[in-house]
């Protein structure tokens, strides 16, 4: 019989190992040397690997089920990185078409996450609020990813900042987690809404 009990310490350690590998890749300069669509394929591959693991790995699925809504939403506080996009636009290191809409969009989503995490004690009871925030956040991250890909394909140099530390952690670590977490939140909310009387 297979032991499917969640190993609570294993998955955070795997996430830390992934973060360390993504940091090492960014520090090595190898990511900066990749031409489109290679960085985009890395992001897509990592996102699909996360989603697949959540569907087929029983231990990982159980660990995810053990995370509460507040923990999944708190991950999106990292989207305050949008402020840095705006700073890099002002310095001429990121194009307006990516940095300004993406920067403001990510910042608004991060503020929404902060408000939900800090000021909504019963997130499960406010599922529709969480669903509205999740939908806006998912639309924003898809916009950011597609805009970055479009601009990188047209002019790879315009998006070079995303392939150097610290922003290289976006395609190699954070954005796959953010996209996957939106999908996991949809699953959690769908199950909860179906169970409502």
Briefly, what is this?
The protein is mainly α and 197 residues long. It is built from eight helices and no strands. The chain has one domain (37-52, 69-195).
Describe the structure.
- With 197 residues, the protein is mainly α.
- It has one domain.
- It contains eight helices and no strands.
- Helix 2 packs across helix 3, helix 5 packs antiparallel against helix 6 and helix 7 packs antiparallel against helix 8.
- The mean pLDDT is 93.
List the helices and strands and how they pair.
Blueprint: H1 10-28, H2 38-56, H3 58-66, H4 69-74, H5 81-90, H6 96-119, H7 127-154, H8 169-195
Helix pairs in contact: 2-3, 2-8, 5-6, 6-7, 7-8
Keywords, separated by commas or semicolons:
single chain, 197 residues, mainly alpha
Largest sheet: none
Order of helices and strands: HHHHHHHH
Distance between the termini: 36 Å
Mean pLDDT, all residues:
93
Q: Assign an overall shape.
A: globular
**Proportion in helices:** over 70%
Rg, alpha carbons: 17 Å
Low-confidence stretches: none
| Total domain modules | 1
Helix- and strand-based class? mainly alpha
Query: What percentage of amino acids are in beta strands?
Result: under 5%
Q: Give the tally of β-strands.
A: 0
**Count of helical segments?**
8
